[in-house]
Amino acid sequence: MSAVRTDPPAASASPVRDTPPALELRGIDKRFGPVHANRGVSFAIARGTVHGIVGENGAGKSTLMNIVYGFHRADAGEVWVHGRRVDLLRPHDAIAAGIGMVHQHFMLVDNFTVLENVVLGVEGGRRLADGLARARAELERIARDYGLAVPLDAVVEHLPVGLQQRVEILKALYRRAEILILDEPTAVLTPQETDQLFRMLARLREQGKTVILVTHKLREIMAVTDRVTVLRQGAVVHETATRETSERTLAEKMVGRAVSLQVEKTPARPGGVLLAVQDLEVRDRFGVTRVRRASFELRAGEILGIAGVAGNGQSELLEALAGILTPSRGEIVFKGAALVRGGLGPRARRRLGLAHVPEDRLRMGTVAAFSAQANAILGYHDQPAYNRGGLLRGTAIQAGCARKMRDYDVRPPDPGLRLSAFSGGNQQKLVLAREIDCDPQVLLVGQPTRGVDIGAVEFIHRRLVRLRDAGKALLLVSVELDEILGLADRILVMFNGEIVGEVASADATEGKLGLMMAGVKEESV
Amino acid sequence: MSAPGRLPRWADLGLLPIVSLLAALAASAAIIAIVGESPWVALRLMAAGAFGSQEAAGYTLYYATNFIFTGLAVAVAFHAGLFNIGCEGQAYVGGLGVGLVCLGLDHHWPFWAILPVAMCAAAGFGAAWAFIPAWLQARRGSHIVITTIMFNFIASALMTYLLVEVLIKPGQQSPETREFASAACLPSLSALLGRLGLNVSASPLNLAFLFALAAAAFVWVFIWHTRWGYELRTVGQNPSAAVYAGISPPRMMLIAMLLSGALAGGLGLNEVMGVQHRLLLDFPGGAGFVGIAVALMGRNHPVGIFLAAVLFGALYQGGSQLSFDLPRINRDMVVVIQGLVILACGALENLFRTPLAALFARWRHPGEGE
Known about the structure:
The complex is a heterodimer of chains A (525) and B (370). Chain A is built from 17 helices and 22 strands. Chain A has 525 residues and is an alpha/beta fold. Chain B has 370 residues and is mostly helical. Chain B has helices spanning 9-35, 39-51, 54-79, 87-105, 111-140, 144-166, 189-195, 208-225, 227-237, 239-244, 249-276, 287-297, 302-325, 331-347, 349-364. Chains A and B meet through strand 1, strand 2, helix 10, helix 11 and strand 18 of A and helix 9, helix 10 and helix 15 of B.
């Protein structure tokens, strides 16, 4: 990744010093009810630079970018673009001011061609054919200038994710964007695609475009940006030239205290096989095969990581092991006994000692409208500890939740509070507490730190390692390579539903895993 | 940190409905003024008509009994994420069950033996009528709103056929059954209280009112304090989380709808066994649909449903008094007023929620960042 870095024109000694900044925010303030999302945010971004914006979840990054893109209106403050004050009432105004946005979830019509997607909304004129012809010529020019080759007549749904993202960038450039906002652009990319993206950003910068990169991945900030702004609790807490800072400093500014980015753990001492998977095939509810003939073993006292770009079958594998999806083929053997296909649901598997922290805690792992204590028994509500003859034991449930909150440092420690009132990290700690509390033999963990603040990440990682050291087996699915590399003792890589290779974590490098994640088989790496 | 736009619980449950109600009354007052009557007089007449005498209050609570049953029915389904529009039909068929039991047993069994059978029939017939739409939803994905509406029509046609062709008392024109013997009639509350030495004027209010209160208490315990209520709410709030927890959403949907239909069937006890003492056409009289408004306004909570049911009972009873006393306000005008209350309390609640929430936010964080 560092190879991508071309020497930037440092913002502090910019040759265009006298020209006004591409984007300047002055005292932006925004409140949603009791939530103060942005507090007097002011900073300027010099033209022709890549500017990073980092902050934890809820720090106000998205709100700020939505204000700049005209989705939200600031309660107070001004936005200046190229030295002109602009009123951004809707995205249209932002586009007119030369601001383009590439959303984390692409805004593309899947069954349209690239060309059709790009002209959507700016077709120009009555006859579509004229507009398309003009757009084609213009797009070919843009593609040449910025090195953004995309097959214009390909249907978007057939393109890999990296190319889809390029279409989004093309869309913005076609609308004459001078300032490009990218919101968590690498979340869906392989490391190689990420490198390509960053090369593209460097090229855009050379051509005088301004890029704003919103991310929580500090490594990417270090690799590609010229300056970086750190937000915490809605306010700017730090701003610096990237070359004068470090990942550690940025992390500390984000959290507000010293943090450890490294997971401390001793080598694993694997025991007997607890979970064996043989020739597993899983289809999703549309009948599409998502897992193809997966076979592996999980031993006591180890963390087995499953790496892969999101959407390559990891989620379905996890759900099949948890009993949510029924495999169409193959066998799952838990503690020596086969979990007969479809015969044992999630409830029975939990009772046997197979717990599951799902990938998406809000979609699956919790009920947002319930209180914390009601969530703390989800899946365990039929156990005698929590109900007698069908009647729920309110006091026991509350006491149990209070204890879990104490053990897992869930804040605020109020069992009666609605789950949606907790931060992502605290929700996740509660889910983890619930699943670990019943002393499972095997813990299936999906994306344990997605949307979780750095302080909680540290805590969750320590807990997972401690569980491993207590002789339990952990299956860890994560799309964050850093997390897999930091936690797992062995790593399986999934691509297109297949397990394409296994690497011991000692031999694993990001490059090697990245190639496998792109479908290159192990032998040829 | 709480999400934006959230009200404290007491304001959500208490203040918001009152604000909505006041808004509806203000709109009604404007309409009454346009018609040329004094809103103030109309309001006093309505209040007096609903609560002015023991008899008036008895009528109000008799209407409320129906609304409590149907309101609870809608609420239970709603907690499982289902919109049961079919309470009207389920109540109708539930009443059929009551009627059949009474017609079959009234000359053979004593009251205390008929009552439990009739209760089971009310619940069983109502539940059975809800079962088919529920099964179609759970197993085949047919939308429950559509199927329950259709089942209202089917129930109506079925009952007309039965009353015209089968159950009609021989030798008469109107499609009604014969009157039940006294062993199959619920005692009125004035008779019950009379036995305790309390003198209350006669009204249609009967024992079914107490059953409705018991049903409300049962629903409260079931939904919030049993394992099954927990599972039912989980399915309603987040079906994926339910599957994750090992709960089968189709199964819980069936259970919720059966319970909902059984509660709606309770209306049959009040109307057929408590007041009419025979089966006749269209005895639910729209209470199944009012139940939707009652559940909405009562926030799907038994206490709220009780209060909303009494309010709607008062609107019904006070409204008929109003149209009786003020010639320029006819029956349809009363329906308009009821409609405004439903509109304000159900459909437009977010109209007042957002400004109220903003008000609370400012009150709790005064001057911060301003």
